[in-house]
Amino acid sequence: MASDRSSSNASDGDAEITLGLLNAVQENSTITQRSVANDLGIALGLANAYLKRCVRKGLIKISQVPPNRYAYYLTPHGFSEKSRLTSEYLSSSFTFFRRARRQCGEALDYCAARDWTHIALAGSGELAEVATLCAAEREIALIGLIDPETSVKIFAGLNVVRSAKALDNLDAILVTDLRAPQAVFDELSKLLTGERVLTPSLLGVMRQQTEALP
Q: Which of 64, 176, 203, 212 allows an S-S link to 181, with CB 3.0 to 4.6 Å?
């Protein structure tokens, strides 16, 4: 039994380090192995080992830049793996509810300050449930939940639709999808301007025009 727990803890630690490394590379392609080790609180040799493993798995690619330095980039597979690990981490982390409640509340306050009172959620799951609780505390009307991947008709008291085009009087959308938040954001940004597609920063979505909400 103790062995099982030890194995589970080791697996959790492995995923957390990998996620930290992928986040670091996404944020700064010119990182060094020493800076990664310092940021993640691990030995330099371990940072080197994880970086090599991510390269072997096709998660990270390396390009040499003069003089004698390297740039690191996430591959499409790396972005996909980062999203998966982020989802698993957020779902299991005891800090999830506290962070989600604060960030969803800030996103909805951002909407209220701009008189955007008809908001849709994008993605069913725990984050969407938290968002509905936050909306109930504010003068915000959640008019539906967008999720083409679910077969349910009602989620957290909201009508579920497959596309934002099915919703009328839509002011903004709050991304609450934990499975593939980047893909959801990219798709919705084709329908609404970037500032009207809100992304809590815990999702780790890359925004080209605007910054993720804190």
A: 203
